[in-house]
Design goal:
Blueprint: H1 3-23, H2 26-43, H3 52-69, H4 71-78, H5 95-107, H6 110-121, H7 126-133, H8 137-163
Helix pairs in contact: 1-2, 1-3, 2-3, 3-7, 5-8, 6-8, 7-8
């Protein structure tokens, strides 16, 4: 097995999950995943041992940001419910709760959404996220904290609106 095949075998699911979670569209997520590995193959960057996943996720997030900024994505994704999910290892049994959480996360500013995605859904540590995004660890901690507070506010608002 080649180095490229090893990396694909080991990290393709993570790249796909991050991309899907970010975009909410499986086809677009698959396109991003393929694009990331094509870039790996064509650019052949020298990745230090243990940093491969960080590079792949960083490229995936950059590509997702490009797609997310597009007007078409904003119209289609923000206005539609998420029917399909790629289960994470800590899959919740309550689909309604999971969908509400994903909808709330999509409402967060990109910087908060990315930090939460990498930390809670990919299990990356604060220092790893900081390195990946080129930011100080304090900034990442702050984004996680503020992102959680915003999520709580969004989810409580949805709960109140369901009660009325």
């Amino acid at each position: 097995m080649t180095y490229f095949e090893e990396l694909y075998e080991k990290y393709a699911t993570d790249v796909l999950r991050v991309s899907y979670f970010y975009l909410g569209d499986r086809q677009k997520a698959e396109d991003v995943c393929h694009d990331v590995f094509v870039r790996l193959l064509t650019n052949a960057p020298e990745l230090s041992e243990g940093r491969e996943k960080a590079w792949l996720l960083k490229v995936a997030l950059n590509r997702c940001r490009d797609l997310w900024r597009g007007a078409w994505m904003k119209r289609v994704v923000l206005g539609s419910p998420v029917f399909e999910t790629i289960p994470a290892s800590d899959e919740t049994s309550d689909k309604d709760e999971e969908e509400a959480m994903m909808t709330a996360i999509y409402q967060l500013p990109a910087s908060f959404r990315e930090a939460i995605l990498l930390h809670y859904y990919q299990g990356c540590g604060i220092s790893e996220i900081a390195e990946m995004m080129g930011l100080p660890e304090g900034t990442i901690s702050s984004r996680l904290s503020r992102g959680r507070k915003k999520l709580e506010t969004i989810l409580q608002g949805e709960l109140r609106s369901e009660e009325h």
